[in-house]
Every structure is written in C-alpha cells, then in structure tokens.
C-alpha cells in the first residue's frame, strides 16, 4: 500500500483522505518511510516525521468529527529550508545559520499548516538560494533522481530549490514549497520533470522567509501536476500585513476555475528567446508546445521583448546588491555562528564569522553586490540595472497588447552532471537566461514538463502571464500537460 500512496499527488491524497479511502496517518507513514529510504538523494537537511504524523492525526480527528479538513487536508509536504519553521532548525543551507531554531513560523508555512498540510522535513537548497545547480549547500549536493541514459553520473536537480524538485520527482514528497528569485522554482522543475509556479510578486508573503533579494523573492508551490500546484498555491497565498510588499487582494479559486480550453487566447512567442547556444532539442520542444497550444484553441503570435538580452546582466547586479544588504545581518552578534578569535575586536569577529559561515558563491555575490553599490560605481552599475529592469517590465506591458500569455523554454539546456559547471560561474548564471526576465518584471510564470530528450532527461516549457493572472498561466499549463501526457518517472536507484 505504501508504494501506492507515495505515487499519489496532492489532489488524490486530499480527496482520498476526505472520502475515507485511506487515513492521513497512513499517507504520512508511507512518505516518512520514503524520505528515510532516500538519504542518498540528500534532498532533506532535516526530516520531521513527528510533525507529519501529528498533522495527519489532527486531520483524521477532524474527519471523525465531520469537520472541514482544509485545502491541503492530510497532504504531507517538504518545506524548503528558507522558510522559518517554529522549533525546527532553519539554515538556508548555510553554516552561518546551522543550529538556528526560529521561535516563529513563516506566514506561508503557517498558511499551509492551517490548510491541513503536514511537514515531512526541511529541504536542501543552494546556500541562501544562490545557485542554479544545488551545489552550493553547506550540507552537500542534492542529487537529481534522474540519470542520463547510459551513465551513472550524479545529475543536477537544478537550483536553488533543488531539494524540493528532487523530493517531488523521486516521489518522496507529493509537493514542496520553493522560492523563485530568478528562476529557482521553474528551472529545477524543468530539470526534474515536475511543475512549479512562481506567482505574481506579492501573492505569497515573504515574512519569515530568509531574504536573498527582497524585490524579487517569491514563494511558490512545486508538485507533479498543474492541478496540484493550483491547490497548493491557493493554500499558500493571501494578504499579510507583516509583509510591506504583500498584495491586498483576495485569493482566487484557481483550482475550481482550471480550464484547458484556450479558444480566443493569444500566446506570444518572443523572437529574442531564439538564442545562440540553445539546445536543439529545447527548440524542438518549444515548437511542439506551440502545436499543443494551437490544438487547445489558442492563436500563436510573434512578439518582441527587445531588452531580453540585458535582463540577465541587470539581474546579476540587482540581486547581489540586495543580497549584500540583506546578508549584512549575519554578523555573529545575535544568532547563528560566531567565530571569535583570541583577542579579536568587533570587526575581527564580523570578518571571521562571515569568512567561516558563508560559502564561496555567497561571498562572490556579496562582493559583487557591495561593489555595485559603492560610491564610485553606484550610478554606473546599480542605477543602470534598475533602468533596464524598468525597460524589461515595459517590454512585457507592450506585449500584453498583443497576447494573453507567453510561451518560452524554461531553460537553455537539460540537466547537467554535478561538478561539470562549478568552475564556470558565468555558464552557470546563463542557465537562468529564460527565467530571469519574468522575475525582474514580477510576473507569474510556470514550468510544465514537456518531454524527455534523447538522453532520457526531462525538458520543461515555461508560460509567463500578465500580472495577477495566475489563472491564465495555470490554464495554459494544463493545456500543455494534457497534450504532453508526460508520465515519465526516474528509475529508483536510491533505496
């Protein structure tokens, strides 16, 4: 039974618990066992089986009394270790926060517990969400459950939400939270053959989420289907007075309004996304995506996003600049690691703590960020990057006059072996080239699995929508999902 239960998604678990096909406790026990058996993936930093069981028992008790079980009643999930969880270690996968146990709960995780979900554990990620391959974690690399045909090399699950994507793809969690600053939900989803949506900036509260770049960070769900993402996003989203950037808007009924009929909709194809170096098979999947959307009734139109080529360099100025400010709070004074050499003064303690506590990629981005904010370079770099950000957002505004949503590849390549790009940060950064523009503009965007490439690795398609139009994005995603019929699973080599 347990193997059968772990193959179920959010909707199937929720409905099965509600109608008594199985209990929430049976589900939690099945997934707890799957998590324990999958240590080789290194997807979890901390497992919390007791949390999952306690939440399940609470749902079963509610059912016995005939009470409402909530949108996520009986569904155990993985929580990216960027969300503060009361009484459970929260590290952002860094040494500097190792052992830090918050006394409070992030708004998003609280919303999920209130909706009846339980926590299987805290998921591994790139340190402070900085990375595209899940190789910068202090707690070791996360392995993708997928292997390239004919090889045994460890593959990247994408990043920064690599623990989340690996756990969902491996069927050791039915869903997981992710955060997306420049593609960190969509790129890992594409690499592992699952769905992931970054909602409009401000839809999900950032309160209690370890900050990377505050004007870009957005939480979102990762799951195996578009329907499951819609359900989970409904539970996660909502106005939060504790977050100054939170949208004061009602949460739409995304699940109930799902509709794969795209008659009368126009889907834009940006010509600037045909970039040199994009994998041929990626371009092939894009063509296939157009056909699927046509079949769903949509009209395909060519559009232009002329400032696309400047989006990535602008992002790698704005994001590190905000990171260098946000990470200044990790100083060894109030919480987290403290490295105090003999006879050291305050400045020495700061320096020693940060030198020991931050990994190489985090240090690289802090240095870039501090440099672009420094007196002589602020106007030359940071001000220019903000101007480009405005132009990128305007490109999209102009595009909405011609189309309802945009179809593009999620990534320029399929997953790559761990260790193959770690000496080449620029090539690594280029992995976000299709994802970053939507982040800069704060738009909802989703990755949906399309097909396997010749090496047997998943490829994802990305839909970008108008501000606040998550419904349009989910509907186009559903149309692709229904036609792609993607049901490939990785072979279980980890337990």
What does it look like?
With 495 residues, this protein is of the alpha/beta class. The protein has a domain at 2-258 and 478-484: Amidase signature (AS) domain (Amidase signature (AS) enzymes). The chain has 16 helices and eleven strands. It has helices at residues 2-6, 10-18, 24-37, 49-64, 107-114, 162-169, 186-192, 226-236, 280-295, 308-326, 346-357, 360-373, 378-399, 425-430, 436-441, 470-484; strands at residues 44-47, 76-80, 118-123, 175-180, 195-198, 218-223, 266-270, 299-303, 405-409, 445-452, 458-465. The strands form two sheets. It has an eight-stranded mixed β-sheet with strand order 4-6-5-10-11-9-7-8, sandwiched between helices. A three-stranded mixed β-sheet has the order 1-3-2, with helices on both faces. Strand 7 (266-270), helix 9 (280-295) and strand 8 (299-303) form a beta-alpha-beta unit. Helix 8 packs antiparallel against helix 16 (470-484), helix 10 (308-326) crosses helix 12 (360-373) and helix 10 crosses helix 13 (378-399). The mean pLDDT is 96.
């Amino acid at each position: 039974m347990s193997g059968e239960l772990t193959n179920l998604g959010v909707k199937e678990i929720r409905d099965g618990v509600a109608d008594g096909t199985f209990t929430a406790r049976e589900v939690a026990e099945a997934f707890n066992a799957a998590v324990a058996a999958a240590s080789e993936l290194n997807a979890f930093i901390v497992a919390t089986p007791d949390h999952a069981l306690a939440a399940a028992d609470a749902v079963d008790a509610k059912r016995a009394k005939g009470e409402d079980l909530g949108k996520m009643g009986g569904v155990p999930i993985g929580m990216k270790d960027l969300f503060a969880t009361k009484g459970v270690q929260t590290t952002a996968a860094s040494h500097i926060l190792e052992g830090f146990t918050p006394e409070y709960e992030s708004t998003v995780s609280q919303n999920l517990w209130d909706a009846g979900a339980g926590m299987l554990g805290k998921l591994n990620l790139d340190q402070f969400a900085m990375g595209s391959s899940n190789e910068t974690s202090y707690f070791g690399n996360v392995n993708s459950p997928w292997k390239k045909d004919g090889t045994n090399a460890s593959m990247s699950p994408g990043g920064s939400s690599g623990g989340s994507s690996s756990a969902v793809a491996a069927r050791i969690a039915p869903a997981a939270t992710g955060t997306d600053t420049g593609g960190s939900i969509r790129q890992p989803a594409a690499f592992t053959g699952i769905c992931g949506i970054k909602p409009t900036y401000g839809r999900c509260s950032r309160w209690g989420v370890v900050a990377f770049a505050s004007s870009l960070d957005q939480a979102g769900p990762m799951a195996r289907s578009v329907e499951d993402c819609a359900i989970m996003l409904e539970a996660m989203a909502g106005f939060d007075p504790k977050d100054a950037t939170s949208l004061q808007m009602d949460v739409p009924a995304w699940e109930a309004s799902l509709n794969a009929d795209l008659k009368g909709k126009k889907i834009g194809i940006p010509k600037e996304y045909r970039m040199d170096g994009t994998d041929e098979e990626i371009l092939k999947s894009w063509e296939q995506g157009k056909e699927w959307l046509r079949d769903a009734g949509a009209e395909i139109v060519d559009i232009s996003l002329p400032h696309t080529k400047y989006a990535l360099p602008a992002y790698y100025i704005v994001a590190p600049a905000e990171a260098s400010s946000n990470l200044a709070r990790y100083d060894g004074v109030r919480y987290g690691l403290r490295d105090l050499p003999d006879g050291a003064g305050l400045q020495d303690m700061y320096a020693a703590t940060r030198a020991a506590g931050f990994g190489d990629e985090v240090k690289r981005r802090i240095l870039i960020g501090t440099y672009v904010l420094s007196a002589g370079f602020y106007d030359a770099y940071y001000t220019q990057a903000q101007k480009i950000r405005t132009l990128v957002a305007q490109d999209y505004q102009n595009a909405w006059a011609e189309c309802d949503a945009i179809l593009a590849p999620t990534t320029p390549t399929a997953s790559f072996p761990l260790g193959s790009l770690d000496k080449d940060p620029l090539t690594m950064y280029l992995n976000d080239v299709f994802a970053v523009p939507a982040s800069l503009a704060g738009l909802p965007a989703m990755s949906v699995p399309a097909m396997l490439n010749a090496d047997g690795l998943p490829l994802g398609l990305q839909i970008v929508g108008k501000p606040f139009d998550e419904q349009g994005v989910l509907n186009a995603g559903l149309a692709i999902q229904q036609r792609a019929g993607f049901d490939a699973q990785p072979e279980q080599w980890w337990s």
